[in-house]
Amino acid sequence: MQALLNKTKGDRWIWLIIILLSLISVMAVYSATGTLAYKKGEAVEKLLLTKHLIFVLLGIGMIYIAHLLDYRYYAGISKILMIITIPLLFYTLVFGANVNDASRWVKIPVIGLTFQTSDLAKLALITFLARMLTKKQENIKNVKESFIPIMGSVCVVFVLIALANLSTALMLFGVSILLLIIGRISIKQISIVCVGGAILLLFVVFLGPRRATYASRIKSFMHPEQQHSDKTFQADQAKIALATGGVFGKGPGNSTQRNFLPHPYSDFIFAIIIEEWGTLGGIVIMMLYLVLLYRCIKIVTRAPKAFGALLAAGLSFSLTIQAFANMAVAVGLGPVTGVPLPLVSMGGTSMIFTSVAFGIILSVSRDVEENLAGKETSEKIKNNKVIVGDIPAFG
């Protein structure tokens, strides 16, 4: 155990946030699945909780493994991921498993598990963009050599995801724009991208296969008083959870809205947390994600290489934007979407891909620490202030 701890590197605050969110996840999911014991029997509840615990521990293991791998290797891996991702997104649209009226999932043969291909696509596109922006820095203003190849990958992935999962596609597009700004793409070119993105968005909303679903959700959000109660059921039950939670909450395990809210352990877990732990509990969750963003920004500013900075920036923006999108939906600040709360919501493969993203960020952080330590050692040598105890042993 001590050997594992000695090998654990990277930002200690991020590690603390990971542990806290994992503990909160176990407690919140245990409470939110309580209603299943009544509806389907205690065996189902215990099975789901055991499965979630396994994925939480597996996720922490993936973070540890991913953070030990030099982040530079992810540049090469990103090309392989993109080659796999685009055909897989096509396959999902045509043959994807239909869950909750949406074909976003692919069933893994033999083991029978399903996973959202958009989770893999987010990781693939962000790492690929970081690689491309770094590689093209010398002629980043060149439209033919830099702008078109970079935006081609963004647009293809955006359209393929948006046809089945608009909310995830919009968040990923927003993260891509932020990366383009950090990567020194000209504002004029970015404006063209935004106009093009708006046209693609209109195409998906008004002509896509799920146009009726998108229109219904937007109308329910903009004019809830004009909708039938069935259309606003999820949002209404979430608001009741928020209102009855008060400042200090009902206490862990005392939620009543978990009996009415669809998916209280995934999409609306933040509403259950506020009902049980109150507004203060909700603020603590928000602060954890804000601290995560702050620590990641520090990593970005200290990263010695452009690829590491862009990689950490893209992944941290993706995680925090997704977190606040989930919380916004739960408190009624956005239309209902199927976006989970990172590291908190129950979900097997989404937990794994989120954990890999955390691991990559910590890999960049580990490199930053080693780089700073090397600089400090060099300064001591230059200033002739090295004492015997300061010299590291190399074998």
Q: Number of helix segments?
A: 14
Strand order of the largest sheet: 1-2-3
Element-by-element helix/strand order: HHHHHEEEHHHHHHHHH
Unreliable spans: 386-395
Number of domains: 2
- The overall pLDDT, averaged over residues, is 83
Largest sheet: 3 strands, antiparallel
Q: What proportion of the residues form beta strands (DSSP E)? A: under 5%
Number of strands: 3
Helix content: over 70%
Terminal Cα span: 22 Å
Q: Give the C-alpha Rg.
A: 22 Å
So what's the overall shape? globular
**What structural class is derived from the secondary structure elements?**
mainly alpha
Describe the structure.
It is found in: Membrane. The chain contains 14 helices and 3 strands. With 395 residues, it is mainly α. It has 2 domains: 206 residues, no CATH class; 135 residues. Helix 2 packs antiparallel against helix 4. The longest helix is centred in the C-terminal third of the chain and has 35 residues.
Q: What are the SSEs and their pairings?
A:
Elements: H1 2-7, H2 12-32, H3 34-40, H4 42-68, H5 73-95, E1 97-99, E2 102-107, E3 114-116, H6 117-135, H7 143-162, H8 166-182, H9 187-207, H10 211-222, H11 233-245, H12 269-302, H13 306-330, H14 348-382
Antiparallel strand pairs: 1-2, 2-3
Helix pairs in contact: 2-4, 2-12, 3-4, 4-14, 5-6, 5-7, 6-7, 6-8, 6-13, 7-8, 7-9, 8-9, 8-13, 9-10, 11-12, 12-13, 13-14
